Amino acid sequence: ESVKGSPIVASINIEKVTPQIIATVTYMLIDLLPIYGFSAVVSASDAAGCNWAAYKAMGTVSLKDIIDNEVIEKYNKIDFDLVVAFENEVTGERHYIIPDLCHLGKNLVTCLELSSNKSSQRDLKNGKAPVNLRMGEHCWLATGGGSNQLQETKLTNRHWDRNAYSRMNVLLAFQVLSASCAAMIRNAISDEEIKLPIENKGVYNHLANFCDNMNTVIDICNGRDGPHTPENAVERQTLLLEKMQYFFEWKELHDKRVKDEEATEYNFFADETWFCLRALILVHVALIQEYCIKKKVSINPKSLNTDVCEWFFGNGRQMVGGATNKMTAVAWNHADRKSGAFSFGRHAVVGNNASGDNSFKRQKR
Q1: Using CA of residue 190, residue 195, residue 196, residue 200, what is the dihedral sign?
Q2: Mean pLDDT computed over every residue of the chain
Q3: CB 60 within 8 A of CB 113
Q4: What three-state secondary structure class fits 221?
């Protein structure tokens, strides 16, 4: 048996989005859906402050109330006090709160980008070792990137040349946080003929490890590894918790260095990004526990952590150059259809690499 989920888009005319309005609309939808035979299980959202202010206020159930004590004791470095759900008063079931995977991926790569920028306060480090996007570009160039030769990765100049459009491209972000990118970095480290800007090439291993761990999390959460099932439930939980332990060990090292005044708060992820990273992984662990292990049903992970409105907004914005002011419902619908058709036909133009250079696009002067 599988649990099938479908997106429902609701709209309301308001002057300003506040946590109170978000909470009211969420409660209203959760109470209304069971009347029509539906059940609301998860609310997915990006990292906007008003969203999480509302969800934190609504949350009443922590992971310690859901996960078995044996698991909590085994992974003792993980903080299971995170509040990720609340009780649905109509059905009596738990309603989970989860970050949007696409937004989180883009935020993580933006953090790597900011850490490469000397004018930015963000300077991500694992211990004393830097972790930034420029290090990945160094390895890419050293292994033949940008030479117009066939590469083992899908990385292109667009992945490193960051601008307002590339920062919003989820595909580019996920291809940076991939196993192939991690393998490329390790190849650059192991090749004795390759010289990198940082003479101690072992420092680049921290970036490779980060990409490797995020690749596993992304593959599980976007459904590439298949649905969560009763058969793979324990294996999935173990894999996700191992990745979560990796990030908590990193955070523990950072906190120790801050306490010793050897680091600052800017040497780790921003608070919102860290909260969303924890919530994404641990909510999946909780959902596997409740639905796959206890209720013996399968669930599609991609339907749990996708903010479906963003696909619609993204398509609309593409067709109007990024501007969304004063668009009517008819204009939104037209822009979405037009962009959808363009995206569908784009594969024939750029081959199997959707992030590659498009020779048919308008050239910059």
Answers
A1: positive
A2: 83
A3: no
A4: helix
Cα(146)–Cα(42) distance, rounded to whole angstroms? Answer: 42
Whether the model clears a pTM of 0.85, i.e. scores above it, the answer is no
* Amino acid occupying residue 77: K
Cβ 67 vs Cβ 289: under 8 Å: yes
* Contact predicate 109/176, CB 8 Å: yes
Whether 63 and 282 have beta carbons less than 8 Å apart is answered as: yes
pLDDT, tens digit (0-9, with 9 covering 90-100), for 153-175: 788 888 898 887 788 788 889 99
**Residue 57: what residue type?**
A
Helix (H), strand (E) at residue 96:
strand 94-99
Q: Are 101 and 267 in contact (CB under 8 A)?
A: no
Q: How far apart are CA 275 and CA 212, in angstroms?
A: 20
> Residue 176 has which token pair?
């940076």
- Tell me phi and psi for residue 364, to 5 degrees: -75, 140
Q: What angle do helix axes 271-287 and 233-259 make, rounded to 10 degrees?
A: 160
The amino acid at 319: M
Instruction: Give the burial string for 293-316 (b: 16+ CB within 10 Å, else e).
Output: eeeeebbebebbbbbebbbbebbb
User: For residue range 217-275, what is the model confidence (pLDDT) as tens digits?
Assistant: 999 998 888 889 999 999 999 999 999 999 999 999 999 999 999 999 999 999 889 99
